[in-house]
Amino acid sequence: MDVALTHWINAAAGISPFLDETMIGVSQIGVPLMVLAVVLQWWAKVDRYHVRHAAVSAGLAFLLGLAINQFILLFVHRIRPYDAGVTHLLIAPSADWSLPSDHATASIAIVAAFAMQGLPRRTMALFVMALLICWSRIYIGTHYLTDVIGGAITGVLAAIVVRLAYGENSRLDKLVTKIL
Length: 180
Hints:
This protein is mainly α. 70% of the residues lie in helices and 0% in strands. The chain has helices at residues 2-10, 17-40, 48-75, 102-116, 120-139, 145-165, 171-179. α2 (17-40) runs antiparallel to α5 (120-139), α3 (48-75) packs antiparallel against α4 and α3 (48-75) packs across α6 (145-165). The longest helix has 28 residues, at 48-75. It is elongated. The relative contact order is 0.19. The mean pLDDT is 94.
């Protein structure tokens, strides 16, 4: 089923140059744009302290999620779908293993961190961006659907850990507030 869904999502790759370039662009600049969107939250006018706490939480979840991925990659060696003949690759091949998707981890960690802070409008905007990023990784042929799902799970777990360790008004929060 994973192979069939991955192949179905990637089936349009190479047919429409406009769609291909759009998905390549989303894949390449989507995560940096999300990071920029989080950084810009620092200057929010409404509920500034709470939004800043969410932005720092998102940054910590982002970093923790990617660190967890590096640990997972030590034990899980899944070949990329284009190497298995499942997808048509639109970008240069990657040098690392396929599972989990770093793009999915990073983008979903940001979304989950904002969701856990109870910021629904920001969460929805970031979720739309993350969904496009995740879809683009399958569309361009570099990940299986389950690689993206695995990355999303890692991102959510990282956000949960950050939420537990870095609660609003905790000692760590007060320390970070002093530093920043």
